[in-house]
Amino acid sequence: MMAWLAGLWSNASAAIEPAGLRDAPALARIHGASFHRGWDEGEFENLLSQRNTLIHRLSMGRKVIGFCVSRMAADEAEILSIALAESHRGRGLSNHLLLTHLGHLAGRGVRTVFLEVEENNRPARRLYEHAGFAVAGRRERYYPQSAGEPLNAVLMRRDLS
Ligand SMILES: CC(C)(COP(=O)(O)OP(=O)(O)OC[C@H]1O[C@@H](n2cnc3c(N)ncnc32)[C@H](O)[C@@H]1OP(=O)(O)O)[C@@H](O)C(=O)NCCC(=O)NCCS
After folding, report:
1. By Cβ atoms counted within 10 A, which residue in 4, 45, 88, 153 is the most buried?
2. Contact 36 CB / ligand 1 (< 6 Å)
3. If pLDDT is split at 50, 70 and 90, which confidence band does 1 have?
4. Global pTM?
5. Atom of ligand 1 nearest to the CA of 94
6. Is the distance from the beta carbon of residue 61 to the nearest atom of ligand 1 less than 6 Å?
7. Are 29 and 57 in contact (CB under 8 A)?
8. How far apart are alpha carbons 124 and 130 in whole angstroms?
Protein backbone atom coordinates (compact mmCIF):
# COMPACT_ATOMS: atom_id res chain seq x y z
CA MET A 1 0.00 0.00 0.00
CA MET A 2 1.23 3.47 -0.76
CA ALA A 3 0.86 6.48 1.48
CA TRP A 4 0.92 9.74 -0.41
CA LEU A 5 1.90 12.86 1.42
CA ALA A 6 0.01 15.39 -0.59
CA GLY A 7 -0.07 19.09 -0.11
CA LEU A 8 3.40 19.55 1.34
CA TRP A 9 4.99 20.63 -1.91
CA SER A 10 3.58 22.54 -4.80
CA ASN A 11 4.51 20.09 -7.52
CA ALA A 12 6.12 17.09 -5.89
CA SER A 13 4.79 14.33 -3.72
CA ALA A 14 6.44 11.80 -1.47
CA ALA A 15 5.58 8.14 -1.19
CA ILE A 16 6.20 5.56 1.51
CA GLU A 17 6.44 1.99 0.27
CA PRO A 18 8.05 -1.31 1.26
CA ALA A 19 11.68 -1.29 0.11
CA GLY A 20 12.99 -3.95 -2.27
CA LEU A 21 16.41 -5.38 -3.08
CA ARG A 22 16.98 -2.83 -5.82
CA ASP A 23 16.80 -0.05 -3.18
CA ALA A 24 19.89 -1.41 -1.34
CA PRO A 25 22.40 1.02 -2.94
CA ALA A 26 20.28 4.10 -2.15
CA LEU A 27 19.56 2.93 1.40
CA ALA A 28 23.27 2.27 2.01
CA ARG A 29 24.14 5.75 0.69
CA ILE A 30 21.67 7.45 3.05
CA HIS A 31 22.74 5.30 6.00
CA GLY A 32 26.43 5.91 5.33
CA ALA A 33 25.87 9.67 5.22
CA SER A 34 23.83 9.59 8.45
CA PHE A 35 25.79 7.36 10.83
CA HIS A 36 29.42 6.91 11.86
CA ARG A 37 29.28 3.19 11.08
CA GLY A 38 27.32 2.99 7.86
CA TRP A 39 25.67 -0.22 6.69
CA ASP A 40 26.87 -1.18 3.23
CA GLU A 41 24.80 -2.42 0.31
CA GLY A 42 25.38 -6.07 1.26
CA GLU A 43 24.07 -5.47 4.77
CA PHE A 44 20.90 -3.92 3.36
CA GLU A 45 20.49 -6.79 0.89
CA ASN A 46 20.78 -9.16 3.81
CA LEU A 47 18.20 -7.23 5.86
CA LEU A 48 15.86 -6.98 2.87
CA SER A 49 15.87 -10.73 2.39
CA GLN A 50 15.02 -11.58 6.01
CA ARG A 51 11.39 -12.34 6.69
CA ASN A 52 11.43 -10.83 10.16
CA THR A 53 12.72 -7.48 8.93
CA LEU A 54 10.47 -4.67 7.71
CA ILE A 55 11.92 -1.82 5.67
CA HIS A 56 10.03 1.14 4.25
CA ARG A 57 11.51 3.62 1.85
CA LEU A 58 10.50 7.23 1.55
CA SER A 59 10.83 8.52 -1.97
CA MET A 60 10.15 11.68 -3.87
CA GLY A 61 9.54 11.05 -7.52
CA ARG A 62 12.05 8.33 -8.41
CA LYS A 63 14.55 9.33 -5.75
CA VAL A 64 14.78 7.45 -2.45
CA ILE A 65 15.27 10.04 0.30
CA GLY A 66 14.83 8.04 3.50
CA PHE A 67 14.08 4.71 5.13
CA CYS A 68 12.91 3.06 8.32
CA VAL A 69 13.92 -0.49 9.27
CA SER A 70 12.77 -2.71 12.10
CA ARG A 71 13.10 -6.31 13.19
CA MET A 72 10.14 -8.30 14.49
CA ALA A 73 10.10 -11.14 17.00
CA ALA A 74 6.71 -12.54 18.02
CA ASP A 75 4.61 -9.54 19.07
CA GLU A 76 7.56 -7.21 19.62
CA ALA A 77 9.67 -5.17 17.23
CA GLU A 78 12.77 -3.03 17.42
CA ILE A 79 13.33 -0.02 15.21
CA LEU A 80 16.89 -0.58 14.03
CA SER A 81 17.32 2.62 12.09
CA ILE A 82 15.55 5.57 10.52
CA ALA A 83 17.22 8.26 8.43
CA LEU A 84 16.52 10.92 5.86
CA ALA A 85 18.90 12.32 3.25
CA GLU A 86 20.26 15.52 4.77
CA SER A 87 18.77 17.80 2.13
CA HIS A 88 15.28 16.57 3.02
CA ARG A 89 15.47 16.97 6.78
CA GLY A 90 13.75 19.64 8.81
CA ARG A 91 10.29 19.28 7.28
CA GLY A 92 8.83 16.59 9.50
CA LEU A 93 8.92 13.97 6.74
CA SER A 94 10.30 11.32 9.08
CA ASN A 95 7.16 11.59 11.18
CA HIS A 96 5.03 10.29 8.28
CA LEU A 97 7.58 7.59 7.57
CA LEU A 98 7.69 6.38 11.17
CA LEU A 99 3.90 6.45 11.68
CA THR A 100 3.34 4.52 8.45
CA HIS A 101 5.97 2.00 9.47
CA LEU A 102 4.35 1.57 12.90
CA GLY A 103 0.98 1.03 11.24
CA HIS A 104 2.45 -1.82 9.19
CA LEU A 105 4.05 -3.34 12.29
CA ALA A 106 0.65 -3.24 14.00
CA GLY A 107 -0.83 -4.94 10.93
CA ARG A 108 1.73 -7.75 11.37
CA GLY A 109 0.57 -8.32 14.95
CA VAL A 110 3.28 -6.33 16.72
CA ARG A 111 2.08 -4.95 20.05
CA THR A 112 5.22 -3.36 21.52
CA VAL A 113 8.01 -1.46 19.78
CA PHE A 114 11.42 -0.67 21.28
CA LEU A 115 14.33 1.40 20.07
CA GLU A 116 17.63 2.80 21.27
CA VAL A 117 18.72 6.31 20.50
CA GLU A 118 21.76 8.36 21.39
CA GLU A 119 20.85 10.46 24.39
CA ASN A 120 21.74 13.81 22.77
CA ASN A 121 20.23 13.14 19.33
CA ARG A 122 17.58 15.83 19.65
CA PRO A 123 15.85 15.47 16.24
CA ALA A 124 15.49 11.71 16.74
CA ARG A 125 14.30 12.05 20.35
CA ARG A 126 11.68 14.62 19.29
CA LEU A 127 10.59 12.42 16.41
CA TYR A 128 10.10 9.41 18.68
CA GLU A 129 8.37 11.41 21.42
CA HIS A 130 5.94 12.82 18.86
CA ALA A 131 5.23 9.29 17.67
CA GLY A 132 4.25 8.25 21.18
CA PHE A 133 7.47 6.64 22.42
CA ALA A 134 8.45 7.07 26.07
CA VAL A 135 11.82 6.57 27.74
CA ALA A 136 12.01 3.11 29.30
CA GLY A 137 15.66 2.98 30.33
CA ARG A 138 19.15 4.34 29.85
CA ARG A 139 22.34 2.63 28.72
CA GLU A 140 25.57 4.27 29.88
CA ARG A 141 28.50 4.48 27.44
CA TYR A 142 26.59 2.44 24.87
CA TYR A 143 27.84 3.79 21.54
CA PRO A 144 31.64 3.49 21.11
CA GLN A 145 33.30 6.45 19.37
CA SER A 146 36.40 6.33 17.18
CA ALA A 147 37.59 9.35 19.17
CA GLY A 148 36.36 10.37 22.58
CA GLU A 149 34.14 8.85 25.21
CA PRO A 150 31.35 6.39 24.34
CA LEU A 151 27.92 8.04 24.15
CA ASN A 152 24.92 7.14 26.30
CA ALA A 153 21.73 5.69 24.85
CA VAL A 154 18.13 5.85 25.98
CA LEU A 155 15.80 2.92 25.44
CA MET A 156 12.33 3.97 24.29
CA ARG A 157 9.12 1.99 24.08
CA ARG A 158 5.70 2.37 22.56
CA ASP A 159 2.74 0.03 22.80
CA LEU A 160 0.65 -0.33 19.64
CA SER A 161 -3.05 -0.92 20.06
C1 LIG B 1 16.18 11.80 12.95
C2 LIG B 1 15.72 12.27 11.56
C3 LIG B 1 15.22 11.05 10.78
C4 LIG B 1 14.59 13.29 11.73
O5 LIG B 1 14.21 13.69 10.44
P6 LIG B 1 13.34 15.01 10.07
O7 LIG B 1 12.03 14.58 9.48
O8 LIG B 1 14.15 15.88 9.23
O9 LIG B 1 13.03 15.65 11.46
P10 LIG B 1 12.82 17.20 11.71
O11 LIG B 1 14.01 17.99 11.29
O12 LIG B 1 11.52 17.56 11.08
O13 LIG B 1 12.81 17.30 13.29
C14 LIG B 1 12.10 16.45 14.16
C15 LIG B 1 11.97 17.20 15.47
O16 LIG B 1 13.29 17.49 16.02
C17 LIG B 1 13.44 18.90 16.19
N18 LIG B 1 14.82 19.23 15.86
C19 LIG B 1 15.39 19.17 14.63
N20 LIG B 1 16.69 19.54 14.73
C21 LIG B 1 16.91 19.83 16.04
C22 LIG B 1 18.03 20.25 16.78
N23 LIG B 1 19.22 20.44 16.20
N24 LIG B 1 17.91 20.47 18.12
C25 LIG B 1 16.72 20.26 18.73
N26 LIG B 1 15.61 19.85 18.09
C27 LIG B 1 15.71 19.64 16.76
C28 LIG B 1 12.45 19.53 15.23
O29 LIG B 1 12.09 20.84 15.66
C30 LIG B 1 11.29 18.55 15.34
O31 LIG B 1 10.63 18.73 16.56
P32 LIG B 1 9.16 19.33 16.60
O33 LIG B 1 8.34 18.35 15.76
O34 LIG B 1 8.83 19.35 18.02
O35 LIG B 1 9.26 20.66 15.95
C36 LIG B 1 16.88 12.95 10.77
O37 LIG B 1 17.36 14.00 11.56
C38 LIG B 1 18.02 12.03 10.42
O39 LIG B 1 18.00 11.34 9.41
N40 LIG B 1 19.08 12.02 11.27
C41 LIG B 1 20.25 11.17 11.05
C42 LIG B 1 19.97 9.73 11.39
C43 LIG B 1 19.48 9.55 12.82
O44 LIG B 1 20.03 10.12 13.77
N45 LIG B 1 18.46 8.69 13.00
C46 LIG B 1 17.85 8.41 14.29
C47 LIG B 1 18.61 7.43 15.08
S48 LIG B 1 18.30 5.75 14.57
Report:
1. 153
2. no
3. very low
4. 0.92
5. 7
6. no
7. no
8. 10
